[in-house]
Amino acid sequence: MPSSLVISAWSAISPYGVGNAPLREGLAEGRDAIAALDHDTYPVPFGQAALVPDFSAAKYVGKKGTRTMDRVTALAVTAVGGLVGAIAGELQARPEQTALVLGTGSGSVQSIMDFTKDSLSGERPYHVEPARFPNTVMNRAAGQSAIWHRIKGPNTTVAGGALTGLLALSYALRLHRGGHCTRVLCGAAEEFSTQRAWLEWHGRAEEERRTPLGEGAAVFLVEPAEDATAAGRTVLARIAGTRFRAYREPDGIRDALTACVRSTLDAAGVAPGSVRFVAPLGGGGKPAAEEEQAVTDALPGADPAWIRLREHLGDTSAAATALQLAAVLAAAGGQGLGPGEAALVTGVEPDGQVGCAVFTGV
Amino acid sequence: MVHDDEQQPRRVVITGLGTVTSIGLGAPAFLDGLKSGRSGVKPLTAFDTTGFAHANACEVADFAPGDWIHHVDPRELGRATQFSVAAANMAVADAGLTARELRERRVLVSVGTTDAESRDLDTLVGTQLAEGPERLSPGVARRAQAGRLSSGIVRELGLVDVEALTIPTACAAGNYAIGSGFDAIRYGEVEAALCGGADAVCRKTFTGFYRLGTIAPEVCQPFDIDRKGILTGEGAGVLLLESLESALARGARIYAEVLGYGLNCDAHHPVAPDQDSLARCMEVAHRNAGVAQEDIDFISAHGTGTRANDVTEAGAIRQVFDTPPPTVSIKSMIGHSMGAASALAAAACALALTEGFIPPTVNHRETDPECGLDCVPNEARPAELNVVQNNALAFAGNNAVLILGRMNRTRRTARPEPLKEAV
To answer: A189 and A52: one domain?
Structure first.
């Protein structure tokens, strides 16, 4: 369904570094952020990973109140922190009108499994640290971000594998349409951890184990264009719409995704030829090829620049599609998408869904 | 096509219920349990409870996945996903629909959860401690993902034109998921929504609540002066929502109308609820639903049975209501089923509206004067109901309040005003 909302600010943390500038520069240089893993810190079967360099809660969130803060929460609090400055006045005056919608994989599997481990291996089964219990609940990152930055509107956590960032955006549009908030801070976060690496390793097909894991977070300020303009914020992109479909066999990915892209473009009245940027998920051999073919099918006459983030940042899992959108905005530059320009972000979830989001200039 | 912002919002109705609970599988059994005040409490069997001084829970004891799941191999699904898929199948059948009919519609699937497949993660930790991380089961690792709770429903029903999201907003997640389904139908985005919540009892969460001193030794007694805490529970509640127009066109039975909902965040404390903020959430919900506080005929409370929750929630209710209506907690019967809790409570509200009764708060001896509410002690009460309210609270101060109404064809629905900044 077409929306009237725009993105007027964004905040990213990627394996290139904390902030929008490192992502912009890393992408412009086409640099790889994948490096050999220190196996003393991370005893995992992967040889490489794309970690956010020198990231810790203490360094980026502060020493106070972060002793038990896990990595995905720290990534979320930091990424959201990169946006709150843009709406400081609004947050101060009416904190209940700003919503926070944050995508996650399964929260922090490291926090969850460490907690169970303490119960199973301690002297008593209840010898666990109570202050760490909230980390094991999957709304922790969104909730703690709200507490840290005093955001009192709807606070929702969304999960949907590789499509998480797109699903969070879709949820955010619906939430706004329903009159539940004035603006939404919307995005997704994923951490690298030893435990996630082992789960991914065992859950993957042999050939997929060659893709290193990445991590990061991206959050967007989503609001009506007139609000952005009134507040002096540059409209970077209008959110034309999102769409999702299911497929049963990998052979069905292409048709399902083509249908998604076509219907999103049609519903918003966007000409396929106007698409200037495409940021696909690019996960796996066959699904990635099907994904690119689907986009090509849906965009006759377009000659877009393809932004293939996964080659540089690894598999950022739940954060992937949100980082893809951040990469589009990074590529579009400080004034955002131009008049008559459009951008497309796509994803394929191995569990049987595809999705896309279309953005236009204003 | 240009989106018509002035398009009249659709009225949204509940036409199918799927319930997996410790007091009965399927809506008829659940209804019977609610009416008779059945309790699902038993000694916990999900894991070895050696070393805990007490370990009662409200588990779903007689659930054979193969009886309820027909197209996906249940072994590919964790227990919470099995519950959600089973409840979705029940809801579709209860609505008088088939999977084939649903495949032709545009659908939203939204499933709330607290722990998703943390039960599987517990199992994997056990393997890891005993045999090392190299020995984890690939099948269990693959299925232990939150997204599966909703995508499992898509696979089972073979849905095509569908958006599937899991909403892990903890113990308020069911109401969040129903709210999103409501908005999706209300504004014409989809033609049907399967939404609710699911969770399975797990060591991780039992241990956390036990360590906080909030697990009741025997039974759950919301609003009672002697209440001692929660009992962990499990199950799933899935509601089938569609537009009133669609329900009337196919002659469907309508349980209730979804009138609206409200969400907010305390942004204050990771685990302690905030009375003022919860009161504001109820007011937001009333405004969104176009009802006034005096319209509410009963409240299905979050009512966990902890000292802190019940007194805070009762305080918030007294703050909003001139005369608080009867306020019950079905957690007294089915325990705290976490992400399923508010979805099952919403199903209970829908059944109450249809059948004309208020579910009881069982295990009740003496109402805590600090709560000071009529909790409909121990026995269901016949009542003519028009509008009911379903409260849900979660860790991190995530509040969600849902408003349901008895089906009334002539009701005029208020279009909620979009929030505007005070200039």
So the answer is: yes
**Which residue type occupies B67?**
D
| B92 and B197 together in one domain | yes
Give the nearest partner residue to A179 out of B163, B264, B419, using CB atoms. Answer: B419
Q: Is residue A226 domain-shared with residue A242, that is, in the same domain? A: no
The answer to whether residue B420 sits within a structural domain is no
Check CB contact under 8 Å for A248 and B158: yes
Residue B166 CA to residue B148 CA, distance in Å, equals 8
- Hey, which bits of chain A come out as E strands? 5-14, 17-18, 35-36, 48-50, 98-103, 155-158, 183-190, 213-214, 216-224, 237-246, 275-279, 305-306, 342-349, 353-360
What contacts B272, CB < 8 A, 6 or more positions away?
Answer: B308
Coil/strand/helix, residue A242: strand
Residues in B touching A99 (Cβ below 8 Å): 263
Residues A244 and A99 occupy one common structural domain? no
Task: Say if CB A136 and CB B208 are below 8 A apart.
Answer: yes
Candidates B131, B209, B211: best to mutate against A (most CBs of A within 10 A) is: B211
Catalytic residue at B364? no
Its domain, for residue A333, covers: 238-360
**Using the beta-carbon criterion (under 8 Å), do B151 and A352 form an inter-chain contact?**
yes
Note the pLDDT tens digit of each residue in B163-205.
999 999 999 999 999 999 999 999 999 999 999 999 999 999 9
Question: From the CA atom positions of chain A, what is the Rg in Å?
Answer: 20
Domains held by chain A: number: 2
Q: Does A267 touch chain B (CB under 8 A)?
A: yes
Contacts of A255 (CB under 8 A, 6+ apart): A247, A294
> Going by C-beta distance under 8 Å and a sequence separation of 6 or more, which residues neighbour residue B48?
none
B417 domain residue, yes or no: no
- Decide if B169 and A139 are in contact by the 8 Å CB cutoff: yes
Distances (CA, A) of B284 to A223, B413, B417: 20, 16, 11
ipTM > 0.90 for the complex: yes
Interface of A with B in 188-227 (CB under 8 A): 198-200, 202-203, 227
| Interface residue of A3, A119, A265 to substitute, partner B, most B CBs within 10 Å | A119
Q: Determine the Cα–Cα distance for residues A176 and A223; give it in Å rounded to an integer.
A: 9
Helix (H, G, I), strand (E, B) or coil at A330: helix
Those residues with Cβ within 8 angstroms of residue B49's Cβ, 6 or more apart along the chain or in another chain: A125, B43, B55
Digit-by-digit pLDDT tens for chain A (362 residues) are 677 899 999 999 999 999 999 999 999 999 999 999 999 999 999 999 999 999 999 999 999 999 999 999 999 999 999 999 999 999 999 999 999 999 999 999 999 999 999 999 999 999 999 999 999 999 999 999 999 999 999 999 999 999 999 999 999 999 999 999 999 999 999 999 999 999 999 999 888 899 999 999 999 999 999 999 999 999 999 999 999 999 999 999 999 999 999 999 999 999 999 999 999 999 988 999 999 999 999 999 899 999 999 999 999 999 999 999 999 999 999 999 999 999 999 999 999 999 999 999 98
Domain, as residue range, for B315: 260-405
